[in-house]
């Protein structure tokens, strides 16, 4: 394990209280300014625009971080066609700028996943879903969570106990939630 990954694994555990805070589950996607990458470059838009229709969104603490790049995003890349077949878009939220997220999208071969830059953490903060990873040199980040929403109304929500886990926010878990809603 390289030094940076080892440091993150040692520091980012459920007992590392400085990384976590209590929060409740939101019922609608809050209004926030987010950034998308377009053919013309970065574009700032409203979250209400982004979450129109049926969307599964998952939040990662940061692009190019080990669990996000090696586990969380690949799960959604693998299941993207199944979500599409159900008429559901897949979006990834991260507290990163759109330039970083476009490079991350290419690196992960995530062509079918919309990358949403929560560049000021406004969306994650308004959802009460942030972690303070300042002790790791990362600052305030979005926590690891996922939700299924229809026109901004959250139908299902999964949040992890630790940013190192990918269970409740996994592609498999969210696909099951979408399938339950489709019945």
CATH architecture: 3-Layer(aba) Sandwich
Q: What string, H for helix and E for strand, traces the elements in order?
A: HEEHEHEHEHEEEEH
Residue share in β-strands: 25-35%
Which outline best applies? globular
Mean pLDDT over all positions: 86
CATH superfamily: Glutaredoxin
- Strand order within the widest sheet? 5-4-3-8-9
Number of domains: 1
Count every beta strand, where a strand is a DSSP E run of 2 or more residues. 9
- Spatial gap, N to C terminus: 44 Å
Largest sheet: 5 strands, mixed
- Helix percent band: 25-40%
- Detail the poorly predicted runs: 1-23
Distinct helical segment count? 6
- What name does the CATH topology carry? Glutaredoxin
Helices, strands, pairings?
Layout: H1 3-11, E1 33-38, E2 41-46, H2 47-50, E3 54-60, H3 66-85, E4 89-94, H4 98-107, E5 113-117, H5 122-126, E6 130-132, E7 140-142, E8 145-150, E9 153-159, H6 171-182
Parallel strand pairs: 3-4, 4-5
Antiparallel strand pairs: 1-2, 3-8, 6-7, 8-9
Helix pairs in contact: 3-6
Question: What would you note in describing this structure?
Answer:
- With 183 residues, the chain is an alpha/beta fold.
- The protein has one domain: Glutaredoxin, CATH 3.40.30.10.
- Helix content is 33%, strand content 27%.
- Strand 8 and strand 9 form a beta hairpin.
- Helix 3 runs parallel beside helix 6.
């Amino acid at each position: 394990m390289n030094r940076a990954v080892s440091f993150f694994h040692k520091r980012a555990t459920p007992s590392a209280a400085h990384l976590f805070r209590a929060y409740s589950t939101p019922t609608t996607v809050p209004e926030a300014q987010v950034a998308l990458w377009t053919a013309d470059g970065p574009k700032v838009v409203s979250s209400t625009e982004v979450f129109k229709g049926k969307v599964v969104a998952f939040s990662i603490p940061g692009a190019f971080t080990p669990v996000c790049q090696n586990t969380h995003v690949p799960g959604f890349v693998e299941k993207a066609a199944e979500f599409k077949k159900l008429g559901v878009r897949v979006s990834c939220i991260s507290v990163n700028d759109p330039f970083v997220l476009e490079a991350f999208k290419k690196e992960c071969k995530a062509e079918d996943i919309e990358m949403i830059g929560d560049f000021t953490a406004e969306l994650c903060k308004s959802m009460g879903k942030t972690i303070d990873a300042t002790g790791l040199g990362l600052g305030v980040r979005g926590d690891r969570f996922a939700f299924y929403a229809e026109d901004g109304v959250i139908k299902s929500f999964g949040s992890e106990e630790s940013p190192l886990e990918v269970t409740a926010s996994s592609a498999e878990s969210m696909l099951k939630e979408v399938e339950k809603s489709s019945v």
